[in-house]
Specification:
The chain has 251 residues and is α/β, with parallel strands linked by helices. The protein has 9 helices and 10 strands. The strands form 2 sheets. It has a 6-stranded mixed β-sheet, sandwiched between helices.
C-alpha cells in the first residue's frame, strides 16, 4: 500500500529540534505519518530514535519546530497531554505494569479511571484483546508470574484498550530473551494487518522489512533516508545507511 492509498496525515512533524544541556539530539526533523501507515525508525543506538517517540507523546519538551496531531498543534502551552496520550498510545521496552495488580486490573485501570467508560464494555474489549494475543487464561495472574514476552503482550493490550488512534513502540523486544521476541512481533504484525497507525523503533531488521510501509533512517539526530523497505534494504542511498546495514549483515 502506497502513502497515497493511506488515509490523511495523522501526525505531522516540522522542523523538530531537541536539545539536552545544549547538545542537539534531534535536528530539523520533518516527517508526516498517514492514518493506517506503519513507519519504522532505524538507526544506531544514541541517534535520537527513542527521543523522537518521547517528543511525540509529550514526555520530552522540544526546543524548536512543531508537532501536529489530527491538525492540532501539540506545542500549544495549553495542550492537555492526559487527553492526547489516550489517543497516542505508547509501549516501552520495560513493560511498566503495576506489580500489585492482576493482568486484567492493569488493563482496566486506564479505561475505567481515566476514560470513565462502562465496565462491562471494557471487560468485553479486554477479553477480545487478550484472546487475540493468546493470554486470556492469564487474566488473573500477576506480572511476576509472567514471562517477559507475556508482559510485553499485556502492555500492548493495555495500550490498545484505551482505543488510541496511533501506537508508538519503543524497542519493545530489547529486554526480551530471543525466544520471546517472536511472540511480541507477531502481535504487532497483526496490528499492522488490521490497519493500526504505528511508529516503531526497533533493531529487528527482518521484522522492520516485514511490517513497515516506510523506513526512516536517523543518524546523529537527522533523518538521512526515508524509503520503502525494499528501497532501503536493497539499495540504501547513503554510505551511513550501508554501514548500518552491514553491521547487521542484512541483505
Amino acid at each position: 500500500m502506497t502513502i497515497k492509498e493511506k488515509g490523511q496525515v495523522l501526525l505531522e512533524i516540522a522542523g523538530l529540534k531537541k536539545e539536552y544541556d545544549g547538545a542537539v539530539v534531534l535536528d530539523n526533523i520533518n516527517l508526516s505519518i498517514h492514518r493506517g501507515e506503519v513507519v519504522v525508525v532505524l538507526g544506531a543506538s544514541g541517534c535520537g530514535k527513542s527521543t523522537l517517540l518521547r517528543c511525540l507523546n509529550g514526555l520530552e519538551n522540544i526546543q524548536g519546530g512543531e508537532i501536529k496531531f489530527s491538525g492540532k498543534s501539540l506545542t500549544d502551552k495549553n495542550i492537555k497531554w492526559q487527553e492526547i496520550r489516550q489517543r497516542i498510545g505508547m509501549v516501552f521496552q520495560n513493560y511498566d505494569l503495576f506489580p500489585h495488580m492482576t493482568v486484567m486490573d492493569n488493563i482496566l485501570l486506564g479505561p475505567l479511571k481515566v476514560q470513565k467508560r462502562d465496565k462491562k464494555e471494557v471487560l468485553e474489549e479486554a477479553k477480545v484483546l487478550l484472546e487475540r494475543v493468546g493470554l486470556f487464561e492469564r487474566r488473573d495472574s500477576f506480572p511476576r508470574q509472567l514471562s517477559g514476552g507475556q508482559k510485553q503482550r499485556i502492555a500492548i493490550v493495555r495500550a490498545l484498550c484505551m482505543k488510541p488512534e496511533i501506537m508508538l513502540f519503543d524497542e519493545v523486544t530489547a529486554a526480551l530473551d530471543p525466544e520471546m521476541v517472536r511472540e511480541v512481533l507477531d502481535v504487532i504484525l497483526g496490528l499492522a494487518k488490521q490497519g493500526m497507525t504505528m511508529v516503531i523503533v526497533t533493531h529487528e531488521m527482518g521484522f522492520a522489512k516485514a511490517v513497515a510501509d516506510r523506513i526512516v533512517f536517523i543518524d546523529a539526530g537527522k533523518i538521512c533516508e526515508a524509503a520503502t523497505p525494499d528501497e532501503f534494504f536493497q539499495n540504501p542511498k547513503t554510505e551511513r545507511a550501508r554501514q548500518f546495514l552491514n553491521i547487521f549483515n542484512f541483505k
